[in-house]
Amino acid sequence: MSEAEQLSSLIGNIYDAALDPALWPDVLAESARFVGGPSAGLFFKGATRKSGNLYYDAGGIAPHYRQRYFDTYVKLDPSTTSHVLADIGEPIATADFMPYDEFLETRFYKEWARPQQLADFVTAVLEKSATGAALFGVFRHERDGPADEEMRRRMRLIIPHIRRAALIGRVIDLKTAEADSLADTVDGISAGMFMVDASTRIVHATVNGHAMLAQGSLLRAVGGKLAPNDASAEQGLNEVCAMADGGDAAVGVNGISIPLMAGDGERYLAHVLPLTSGARRRAGATYAAAAAVFVHKAALESPSPLEVIGKLYKLTPTELRVLLAVVEVGGVPEVAEALGIAESTVRTHLLRLFAKTGAKRQADLVKLMASYTNPLIG
Questions:
Q1: Is 246 within the bounds of a domain?
Q2: Last-in-domain residue among 297, 332, 353
């Protein structure tokens, strides 16, 4: 198949996974092949504590290596803090946050990546919060070398669709649900769901969707069409639903999360899922709908302490790694051993941290970090 045909098929499968999480392993395997890697995963990484959780994966990471990663090597992985300063939806490779030659000298590479013949890992942040980030990533085999621009280009083609599908899947949470129709399945969720045609005419709404319309503070039905009270949001919703009628690929990066404002100041988000392709066509045909619109209350946006410190003091991802290691393990020799880098490299980064933060010694860095993680410490 041509690249366009591969992409079209993959995007359709990605959106099907939003409604059927059991499809994610196959979708991730297909995504890895399209991007140019042996395996891929959807996972979570903590913001300040070096921890993580795997949602779905596919490909060549053996179970014992997967377990060792989350038990031990997540704390040594140079990419663990890279998501803190990353832009949502933008692919990041090792060379974006540290010199690749330096990466090859880390314990993480020598003990975990190299034995598996892995050369790189390209990730994209799907969502960030004060506690951490949800990410999508594809490994790179050593036979292909570090990530190149072609790999990044292909990642950018699918990241928006994976992000939309993952966000919708989280709203629906269909881990164990079984139902005869999409409408039956989502009627019990807290989000409101509306099936609309290309002109946003409402052809079906769940119980919570009708409740939102009846309340009238956030959404209304105007001439039978779904209309947010916010004019800019209405335009964005109209555009995405019109594009959804053209198929999965047409939706692209637009309207992944459309912000809505209720009359009382409460913030909501709307996610649009195309229903004109893949296994979703059955639901769309049943209701003559082009898209399903999911509306739910937005979580309070609060950046992590590391993100606040990083942006305030203009720190690099490597400097953030050293800062966190200083807080967790202590002196230069211990930090060097924990990160798998030379003591001289740690000292160099410490000097930069002192210059940027105004700290005079490592104890000052510990106090600085504590002041952001615990506002009672000053």
A1: yes
A2: 297
Residue 261 sits in a domain whose CATH number is 3.30.450.20
Number of domains forming the structure of the chain: 3
Which residue reads 């594009």 in tokens?
A: 243
What is the model's pTM? Answer: 0.78
- CA atoms of 359 and 336, how far apart (whole Å): 20
pLDDT in tens, 56-86: 889 778 889 988 988 888 878 888 777 777 8
Q: What are phi and psi of 223, to 5 degrees?
A: 60, 30
Could you tell me the two tokens for 48?
């300040």
Query: What are the C-alpha distances in Å from 337 to residues 162, 178, 271, 329?
Result: 37, 50, 45, 10
CB atoms within 10 A of CB 352: 15
CA distance 138 to 32: 6
Structure tokens at 341: 């880098």
CATH number at residue 330: 1.10.10.10
Residue 54 belongs to what H/E stretch? strand 52-58
- How far apart (Å, rounded) are the C-alpha atoms in residues 282 and 201? 19
Q: What residue has token string 């002109």?
A: 199
Same structural domain, 230 and 368: no
Beta-sheet strands, E only, within 129-241: 132-141, 192-196, 202-205, 219-222, 225-228
pLDDT in tens, 129-179: 766 788 999 999 999 999 999 999 999 999 999 998 888 887 665 433 333
Domain co-membership, 125 together with 20 = yes
* Token pair for 104: 């090859």
Cα 154 to Cα 158: distance, rounded to the nearest angstrom: 7
